[in-house]
Write a structure and sequence with these properties.
This protein is an all-alpha fold. The chain has two domains: about 5-65 and about 155-160, UraD-like (Orthogonal Bundle); about 70-135, Orthogonal Bundle (UraD-like). It has nine helices and no strands. The chain has helices at about 5-10, 15-25, 30-35, 45-55, 60-65, 75-80, 95-110, 125-135, 140-160. The protein starts with 5 loop residues before the first helix and ends in a 7-residue tail after the last helix.
Amino acid sequence: MTPHTLNQFNQLAPEQQRALLLDCCHSSRWAERLLELGPVRSVGQIQNRAFKAWSKLQETDYLEAFAAHPRIGDLQRLKEKFARSEQGQVAHADETTLKELQQLNDAYFEKFGFIFIICATGKSAREMLAAIKSRISNSREQEIGNAAAEQEKITRLRLENLFAVQPDQ
């Protein structure tokens, strides 16, 4: 995702703005709600708008966003791809941990019907393994809520990256 200034973003055509927002959170209804609010004055403002829009969505909107994520726990993808992505810490894990992540991710998907969502930035594979172990016994309703909260964290980070600012700016 190429960083933009707020001014550059505000001057883009709505379909270009929408595409950038969908790169941050792949929920069509969420992106549309943000676009309806007009120009963005600050990163904090768009993050607040993003949170408010996200918190008012339905389960189908959340599932749309979740489906756009790679599966944490896919052993081959962990080894090949995640070393340079948001899940970068996973690539440094031992084979046993990666296999257990893969197995639990598959079990999680089978139980809940969507992938395990976690804001993996800065987390080790063992931390993610502990998280999935602690969440897999939850109800589907609890996990929709947990995954939605994690997606909000991911979106906040992606918006920071989109506008190339530090979290405190």
